[in-house]
Every structure is written in C-alpha cells, then in structure tokens.
Sequence to fold (299 residues):
Amino acid sequence: MRNFIAFILMMIVSVPITPASVMGREIAPIVSVDWLEKNLANPKLVVVDIRKVEEYRAGHIPGAYNVFHIALSPSRHGLRNELPWDDDLRDVLSSAGIAANSLVVVAGDNNWLCDRFSMTRVAMTLIYAGVPNVAVLDGGTNKWETSGKAISTVVVKPKFRKYRGKFRKDIFIDKIELASDLRDKTVIVDARERDYYKGNKKLNFVARAGHIKGAVNLPVCSQIFKQDGEYKSAEELKSLVEKTVGKDLSRKIVLYCDTGKEATGLWFLLTQVFGYTDVKVYDGSCQEWAEDQSMPMEK
Fold:
C-alpha cells in the first residue's frame, strides 16, 4: 500500500521523486501547477503567496493568502534572512490561519534566482515551526500564469487560528556547534556559486573571501534548476546530491551559503525529496562566520 501511494504521488508532481520523499507526508514536496489546480478545493490546503502585497493584489492563485516572505525571514541579530523569533513566527502563522496539520503550498515569483530560494526559505521555516506537510510550487506563480491557469484579484482574508505546532529545533546549527563539527566526519556543504566558494568573489557584507575550512561545494543556483526555473529531473538532482554528500541517508550534513537562504534550497531537496535524515542549516552562514576572525576559512 505504501509503495502504491508513493507511486500515485510521483505521477501527480512535475518532478519524479523517490518514495522516501513522500513517506509520512500527505502532500509531495514539489507540486506542479496542474496538481495545485486540481486540489484547490481541498479544505486542508493553504496556498501561501509570498510576493509583495501589490503583486498579490494585481493577480494571484484563487484562494491564496498573502504572507510577504520578509515576514518569515527577517533580519535578526544584524544578520540577513534569519529565522524570526518563535513568538513572532507563531503570530504570523496564527494570522494566516495555518495549523500544524495544514497542507501548505508556498508560491512565489520565479523571476530571479533569489525568488526561487525565497520559496524554500519559507517552506523550511514552516517545517521548523512544526508544519510537516509543506510543498513548493514548481515554477512559482510565473508558471501558474504562463500555463493559463485562473487568476483572481479577490483579496482573501484568512481566519485567525491560534498556532500550536511544536517547533523543530534540530533543523538549525549555530556557529559554536559548527566549529566543533569541523573535527568530526560531518559533511559541510557550501551552496554558493564556485567563484564565491573558491574566494575569487565575495559579497560586500561578507568580511572574508573563501569558504569554511573543509567544506565541499554544490552551487545550487546554477545546478538544480532548468532554464525556465523549474526543477531538474529527479535523476539529475539525485546524481548531483550523491556526488557531493554520498548515498548514506543518515550521514550528518551541514549546509551554508552567504546568508542561509540558498542553503535552504539544498536542505529542502536533501530532506524532503531524497530522505536524508540528519541535515542542518547554519543560518548565520558566511556573513557571521567570516566576521569572526577566529573561525577558519580557506580559498
């Protein structure tokens, strides 16, 4: 029965995925616009439009709520794209009417690479807050529009529901924990593009060029998406993943980038699609690590 359910789910998403990715889920991690269109009437389904309010008002997926992604990934401790405080996150989810047993589809722009990772950043934040059934819309709202799906301009006001989900503190790792992991067999993955990993380039807010000592590189921006912004095939993605972190699904893996945002794209694939069980994101990433001169980096 479990294999049959996995097969059915594989047929209705745009990206073929492994059975491990859907075990324990009521919704596949990556859903197509066709699947979403067929399931909009599901009373448990919540479509979260994470674009700016003016973009949402101009036209959105029918029934979608608007929660601008910045509300779910604000600046914290002076760092970019950090987790909200738990109380603030509970308030956002309560206002959006999201419950721990909701089936949530995150839909955002697909115009720029950073927009694609806004979707996985929000999806990961929701999973952290205790909502396990979260999916991202393959191709985002752009794919919905170009596919000729119905567009609504009706602003949907969600019904307030006190959020009571249990937070998952095991998803993230801090600087001190990561520094201690440098001495064991943890696989540390830098999700940035190659020039940033090698130290040929750096962003202005990152104090030092290069990568965390011992880290390997999997550039998610250029490697996991097709030209149109949809995900590559499961076969291609699985090959990329296994070449970088191996096939042991229980191996401890830590991911980072410049701010923790791109790393969520890789975390989502590893944990929600391919079933790796011990994957953490270092949220401070290079912005925090490079600022501390005692933390080892190399080029």
